[in-house]
Amino acid sequence: MLEMSIEYENSDIKGGIDPQKRLTNLVHQAGNNLCADCGTPEPKWVSSSFGVFICIKCSGIHRSLGAHISKVLSLKLDEWTDEQVDALAKFGGNRILNKKYEACLPSYIPKPKPHSSIEERSDFIRRKYELLQFQECDDHSPCPIQPYQGRISSLAQSSSSCNNSHPDKKPYDKHPTKHRIVHPFRNSWGRKDSEHKSSSKKSTSLAGMVEFVGLIKVNVVKGTNLAVRDVMTSDPYVILSLGHQSVKTRVIKNNLNPVWNESLMLSIPENIPPLKVLVYDKDTFSTDDYMGEAEIDIQPLVLAAKAYEKSTINESMQLGKSVASKDNTLVRDGVISLDKGKIKQEISVKLQHVERGVLEVELECVPLTQ
Predict the structure, then answer these.
(1) What does the record give under GO molecular function (predicted)?
(2) Domain extents for the chain?
(3) Of 16-25, 70-79, 208-217, 343-352, which has the strongest mean pLDDT?
């Protein structure tokens, strides 16, 4: 394994080569041209936590594990640094990593194939990376294969690691409608009722076992006039939650007007839930303090992306907007626009259940083909 890692590093001697070129070289290494989990050709995603190259479908399952278990990055959509590429190269690639994480894979547990269902992928990936059931073991210890019962419990643990509950806060699905961003033009996109029913028969307890219709890239821009939680200031960070997926920004110390400009990616489930944003103050010796939240309806953005996915229009144009009113949390109208082939929306929301604070984000809907 050490020899392989050295070979990877030597083959990617920087010498002025930009990180994207080095990434391309890594993708072409033997084994990395196939998804580590299902064998789909030309994977375009990476779990930077495990160093494996994965396909779009498997990347959605990795995201549902939570970024604290598997952080997913795009080979093309994310901006990679030399340090990140160095770290990826040191893992050794798909072949080496599969020998490690599938060393004890029993014959009666089939590995997913490119055509496998989302249920098969979810079960396998959770066993492989979250429970480490197939990981290499020595000759004197039994392989750690046990009956898998953990979808609900593991997700609850995943969520609790990112979301610190607030004792005065009502449950997420109990919030009044006025706390959500309401889009008066939602029905103008022509979404059929059958689309809403497509996943209604699936059990909501089967976390991560849903089909994905696309990706949403969220650029957390900045916060303004946030609540004070540490004497005279706060150390804020933002959690983004979509369905069972949660990701978070870095912490910015001692700032009530933080500028993150940090982009995070989430998979969009077919039964599209609202994007939930939560702001917390980081505490070293106690539970992180709650600083407010908001919900953003992303369905209009997704429908606009579907409608214009194959558009050949090059000039920028407005496709619609979310109108700010006293019935929603918008600070100003959120315009959906087509810009250089990308569907984007700028959103500014007043944080709820807190004394003050505004959060600005930029949304971009990305088709699965990317």
Answers:
(1) GTPase activator activity; phospholipid binding; zinc ion binding
(2) 2-130, 166-366
(3) 343-352
DSSP code, position 127: I
The class that CATH gives domain 2-130 is: mainly alpha
Residue 85 per-residue DSSP state = H
Please state, for a pLDDT cut of 90, what percent of the chain lies above it: 54
Q: How far apart are CA 9 and CA 23, in angstroms?
A: 12
* pLDDT tens digit sequence for 174-232: 333 333 333 333 332 333 333 333 333 333 334 445 578 889 999 999 999 999 999 99
- 166-366 — its CATH code? 2.60.40.150
